Amino acid sequence: MEMGQQVLKQQAFSTLMGTRLVHLTKGEVVLELPLREELRQQYGFVHGGVLSYMADNALTFAGGTAMTGPVITSEFKINYVRPAQGSMLIARARALHAGRRQSVCHCEIFVVTEKGETLVAVAQGTIAAMAPREES
């Protein structure tokens, strides 16, 4: 968990967004994002780019903890299930399969309201091991 907190702090964009890492084990992660007006689009819903960011980060944390060494997102797909309106987003991701070079991960994103959690997006992605950098 401590290493995950350090990685999140190194991501300037995650710091700007206010993302919190609340759970991290091998192949599983839970991220939270308190919502504010700047993260909403013109109709008052959470912007799709914010949901995509949460999916991307959660998928990569899940895949990265299931593999060895540094990783990056190779690709992901997201389905917006319904508009997100509430006070916080929660992204829960897990690695479905992890190999030496890539892992396939699944993420569900929920919005929190006074009534509880509601599913707002589902994503699946491939996380790839980074090739060692060559010294120049």
TrEMBL record:
* EC number(s) given by UniProt: 3.1.2.20
Q: Name one GO molecular function term.
A: fatty acyl-CoA hydrolase activity
Which SUPFAM superfamilies does the UniProt entry name for this protein? Thioesterase/thiol ester dehydrase-isomerase (SSF54637)
Which InterPro entries does the record associate with it? HotDog_dom_sf, PAAI_dom, Thioestr_dom
Q: Where is the signal peptide?
A: none
Q: Which UniProt keywords apply?
A: Hydrolase
State the superkingdom. Answer: Bacteria
Keyword presence, Hydrolase: yes
Provide the Thioesterase domain boundaries: 43-111
**What is an example of a Pfam family matching this protein?**
4HBT
Catalysed reaction(s)?
a long-chain fatty acyl-CoA + H2O = a long-chain fatty acid + CoA + H(+); a fatty acyl-CoA + H2O = a fatty acid + CoA + H(+); a medium-chain fatty acyl-CoA + H2O = a medium-chain fatty acid + CoA + H(+)
What family does this chain come from, according to its entry? Answer: Belongs to the YigI thioesterase family.
Indicate what this protein is called per its UniProt record: Medium/long-chain acyl-CoA thioesterase YigI
Species of provenance: Myxococcus llanfairpwllgwyngyllgogerychwyrndrobwllllantysiliogogogochensis
Q: What is the lineage of its organism?
A: Bacteria, Pseudomonadati, Myxococcota, Myxococcia, Myxococcales
